[in-house]
Amino acid sequence: MSAQSRKTFDFNRRQVLSAGLFTALTLVVSPAWGAGPASFIVYGGDILTMEGEAPAYVEALVIQDGLIVFAGSKLEALNRAGAQPKEYDLKGKTLMPGFIDPHLHPVQGASMLMPKYATPFDWKFPWGNAPAVRGHDAFLEKIRSYSASLPTASEPLVVWGYLAPFHGDLERKMLDAISETRPIIVWSYSAHEFYLNTAALKAYGLTQEQVAGNPQADFAKGIYREAAAFDIVVPRILSVIMDPKQIPTGLRRLRDLAHLGGITTVGDMGTGSAGQLAKEVGAIRAILDNDATPFRMRLVPDAKTLDLLMQDDRKVIAKVKSLPDANSNRLLFGKQVKLYADGAFFAQAMQLESPGYSDGHKGEWIMAPDRLRRLVRLWWTEGYDIHIHCNGSLALTLILDSLEEAKSTHEGQDQRLIVEHFGVSTPEQVARLKKLGVAVSANPYYLYSMADTYAEGNLGPEQGAQIVRLGSLDRAGVPFALHSDFTMAPMEPLFLAWIAVNRVTALGTRMAPEEKISVYKALQGITINAAYVLRLETMIGSISEGKKADFVLLAENPLKVDPMKIKDIAILGTVFEGRPYPTDACLLCNSSDNEGLDGSLTPVPSGRYSHPH
Questions:
Q1: pTM for the complete prediction?
Q2: Which one, of 243, 260, 294, lies nearest residue 125 by Cα?
Q3: Beta-bridge partner residues of 610
Q4: pLDDT tens for each residue of 501-559
Q5: Secondary structure (DSSP) of 526-571
Q6: What are phi and psi of 265, to 5 degrees?
């Protein structure tokens, strides 16, 4: 085929929009690259494959039916593409596998996009910004101003973002001073704690008798932590924090934030954690399981909550085994479960080995150690991958001991154990991770947001600086991925990679440089290694023949810029299974787009997508 006879297409907004591929209110996505009989060729930029342990590039790709059918030279691509293929010229931009965020919580994340924000960090959204709030008085004043803005004195107020090191102490009487009639719920930044005023305790039927002898609750102060928060408070306030009139808006906002971050796959790490597995899946299916969503979701059921609700191992196993029966192209259950060890990192509730916290306080367990050991043994014997929430070194020891015990009676075949978060650890534990074949899905935002505060406070300089020790994992050969746990961190994989590469905090402090990793290792953490922890590495995560045609298009190559500029690289668009989704054609829903679910979280698709601009 001659150069004159080939038609080329720029992958940019002007070309896509001029083709009339998007309308103002309803997303009508462009034809997929390689849809139907025609093949598509992509070339003209850095095509970074993420195959292997060193950077590798190909000159061109051939895509057909949403799959990569060839990756190699442009000449061979033209030969393989058949008659009159369409061509996309990258114009010098960088194409790499679509980013993967392997740990977030879509329904919880959607619900946390809807409350009033009062966090110690700036949050910037397409629909409006939430400036940081710091200081005790400023925090209470923010709640007071939110309360005053509501139309009636009885309308509930939910405020998300409380973090004690930045906001000081908080308890019931402080919230009562703001309002004695309005139910006020302060949802901690970690999402593992609730602080309620008297009106809220009464409105949602919370009593002293429910928590008698429970060390994770202080009824007099209106404070509920960890299991007390999840098992006692959440079921009673679910209609408020997961308002079915607002969840559709939240899910669409989450969809668009993921897209703007260059993400083509996410892991829902704990589906059903609020005790409504079927309803959560129904909401996700109604709002996100369609062509407006440019990513797939790996759904990992919360086995802790199923165990609590069913209290019968046989029934729980049968339920989990049945979940993949309803899989779709975008929603994928697999042979995986989620468990929990210790408390929240942001709440200083992680369980630490000696010497522990400098102020002498103890962490919390979400699952009692004996219960965790039992469920690790159960699911390991069943041949399931086990993902375990773990923030502190003592919790990590418990997990590794539990795995050793399980393997002593059932070595296993191909299943994996993945430590989720990996806040505080020791070098000795890294060696055990390698020995036992454990992988890690880490949250580097812990370092960025909290290392300065914790190094000066309860963790001390050495332990605080070594938060999320990825360099040690790399040297030991332990596979690891990077995640956001949104809203614990922004859904911005390049930002997470930037933290891991530079180990720079929000205050500009450089922490434990020996724990830095290379740019390529960081990119593995948001592509092929993230696919590995979700057990999707044969489908996605690298550019290879037979894999899904999932890509992110970048203005610059992360391997060729100053490492301090990685977080600033522009994301121009994504491709999901061969279908282009330009980021500046993203349709962001506004706060009035509340249709979609009835009062019981049963899905009622609205089919409307609105734009704030």
A1: 0.89
A2: 260
A3: none
A4: 999 999 999 999 999 999 999 999 999 999 999 999 999 999 999 999 999 999 999 99
A5: TTHHHHHHTT-TTTSSS--TTSB--EEEESS-GGGS-GGGGGG--E
A6: -150, 140
